[in-house]
Design goal:
Blueprint (H helix, E strand, L loop, with lengths): L4 E2 L15 E2 L17 E5 L4 E5 L8 E7 L8 E7 L3 E6 L7 E7 L3
């Protein structure tokens, strides 16, 4: 696609490559991404401040975004402590007592 993809446009294909912008034309527009086995988006619960996420989507260059859902009695700073391309990545809290649910998103740089 050259130019822009504007909200209200439906495209059903395997891959969309845009050299312009992808624009949600209204505030009701959204970006939807499926969760599940080997997905790029999901949630995991920390146990003793750590969690392992199995997904074939992770690469050596993946940008992995983490967000805590809710609060816990003891919380810590979150980070990706390790990754194995094509297999999994690990999340580590600075508190071993952290038991929050963590949402994660993997995006690949172009």
């Amino acid at each position: 696609v050259s130019g822009a993809i504007i909200g209200g446009t439906t495209i059903t294909v395997g891959t969309v490559s845009a050299t312009g912008n992808i624009i949600g034309a209204t505030t009701a527009s959204g970006y939807y991404l499926a969760e599940g086995t080997n997905a790029s988006l999901g949630t995991v619960t920390l146990v003793a401040g750590t969690a392992n996420v199995a997904t074939t989507k992770v690469t050596a260059n993946s940008r992995i975004f983490l967000g805590a859902e809710g609060t816990g009695a003891v919380v810590g700073a979150l980070g990706v402590s390790s990754r194995t391309a094509g297999t999994s990545f690990a999340i580590q809290s600075s508190s071993a007592l952290d038991d929050r649910n963590i949402a994660w998103l993997i995006i690949e740089p172009a």
